[in-house]
Amino acid sequence: MVHTNPAGDNRRAGSQKPVPDPAAAPVGPSWLEPVLLAVTASSLTAGGVLRLLGHSDAADLCWALGTAFAVVPAIGWVVAALRRGHAGVDLIAVLALGGTLAVGEYLAGALIGLMLATGRALEAAAQRRASHDLRALLAHTPRTARRRTGTEVRPVPVSEIAVGDLLVVGAGEVVPVDGQVAGPAAVLDESVLTGESAPVEREPGQTVRSGVVNAGGAFDLRATATEQDSAYAGIVRLARQAGAEAAPVVRLADRYAAWFLPLSVAVAGLAWLLSGSAVRAVAVLVVATPCPLLLAAPVAIVSGLSRASRLGVVVRDGGALERLGRARTLLLDKTGTLTGGRPRVVDVTAAPGRQPAEVLRLAATVDQYSPHVLAHAIVDAARERGLEPSMATEVSEEAGRGAYGMVEGRRTTVGRLEPAVVVPDWARAAENRALLDGATVAWVTVDGVPTGAVMLRDPLRHDAPRALRRLRTAGIGRIVMLTGDRPEPAREIAAVLGLDGVRAELTPADKVAAVRAERGRAVTVMVGDGVNDAPALAAADVGVAMGARGSTASSEAADVILTTDRVDRLADATSIAVRARRIAVQSALGGMLLSLAAMGAAAVGLLPPAVGALLQEGIDVAVILNALRALRVDRGARPVLEPAAEALIHRFAAEHEDLQDVLQAVRDAAARLSDPGGDGQALKSVREVNRLLTERLLPHEYAEEHQLYPALEPALGGPEATATMSRAHAEIERLAGRVAAHLALAEPQGALEPGQLEDLRACLYGLHTVLRLHFTQEEENYFSLAP
Which end of the chain has fewer CB atoms surrounding its CB within 10 Å, N or C? Predict the structure, then answer.
């Protein structure tokens, strides 16, 4: 069914980064690192056993073989690094391995070989990367189309479609090429390209872009472009280009090696020159072998990856975690990222003499038979409020108009109003409210008479505000929204979240341009969940996919995948990345400072190569133990809740859903006080509001005050953390008491005095505002803590 949409919502499909980072992946076959580790460990162990048994020559042979085995792949890694334009950390290891073989310090060479193999194996584990091809994008692309020639309709390959061909697009099919509607009006799901979740109706002659889905009945399409010139093919090309332009990842170890390498070689050469002993030079290179770089950084990064995975965050490789830890700019899609990605009922307006609950139940009774996304939202809202739909007969649905059925012997419709229907004043007021709130309206009529209006909107995620605050704490200095949605709803969300900027009505190409511009200023993260975000995800330094409900394509595109449907997991991942990178840097720098001290001792002859290698082992152990701190939970990142507190959060969150009709009743009663001549109806509404407040709302607030808040205080740092919410409870109780007092004054006369109307109306509107704000604050600050 189709509903009027003054301010539509967004939805994404999937996206994908196509080109893997060549520098991020280990050089050589995937089995090389584990084989190298096994051989070097075995040779070192066998040599040690033979030395203990008195077979020194055999022990030296084992160690020499292990050293030689490590030299070969190390040379390959160095050559690959040089081809990419930089001398990596492995060059020092190659010099040290070669030096130990040249001067006969085979034990030292075997120790270095083991450390090199261990570091490469850890780094390979840290660089687990899934395929970044375009399979999911291409899977969405239709391979054939139905071309109409006269009265004959025949399937043909999409590549054969020419401009001017008349095509038939069936229900549920993907539009194969750009074109214009040539037959009946088309109802389209354009979320693949624009993110709009609400279907859009295109009249004959209007343009339709390829890649969108036919959400209504079959229609004719006149092709205006070939397959290669159509919109969806452009998205695929943009994803390829952006991925190809991604800069190679430079390992953390290699960045430090840029100055450590020449320093080590200079000290070794100076020691040889002054002493005339090549052994001293080899000893310097042995203690200079950057095992703290080869081991500490990968251990810290792998520990960070492990911590993130426990929270439902999959990080593709260590390079992505490093970049996330250095990020300073965050770009966010709106729908499915900052919002839930699915419309929800936010308000129900009833005609005079009707109740909102009755309107919602009627709408759900008809819509329970519809597959439309808004129909599902209406049915879900009715059931959440305990309103079970009844039976409807003769149900039908007309694309672009709505659903129809007989309910209790009366024709009931949900969708658009018929053009001939006279719109009453209350309906015009509801329409204006929907426009101001950025909501979609589903009108409910009974026997052609408007009965009520159901307003739907894709709401802000409860966890989004806290997540963005935590991201700023983690070092993100600039947060900008990039969306294909209209400016009005985008700006509203940006204002609520305190974003630094918002850009609306963007095409995929516009998003790529925005990402590139931000990348020129700082390390940039892009978060999205749809096909239309694919090029932007590929162009960003770190692409993040909301993978819980996103498509396979978006999951395969991103460097980071949030497998749970919570945006605050990105804040968790960023905090982990910052901490892991900080520990990696601490470990690397600390290890290098110790190595520099050992290099000085070796240069003056105080450390022979074998002793230097053993000392280097001690340094390695120290920095690895420090790097393993990245596995520990950072208690400051997220409050730790007791199971009982989590259960209470879930309980009161469900009660918030149940109490939405109470909030609606409060506002409706306030509105009825403005209706001249409706004093009797107004008094009845106030009585009902007083009953709801007394029986449902105030007990809920009392239970929160005496059960939920005390349970949260240990995790939040004490009673001060909930003090402002307690003050809101007091204000709610005060306003409810004032409503009850007005009702007590009116009961003896059976009517409200004129002097009461203004104050009572202010009380009700004030109570509604305080309740909405209070509920939102609790949902953002408290309810978002529970998984």
Answer: C
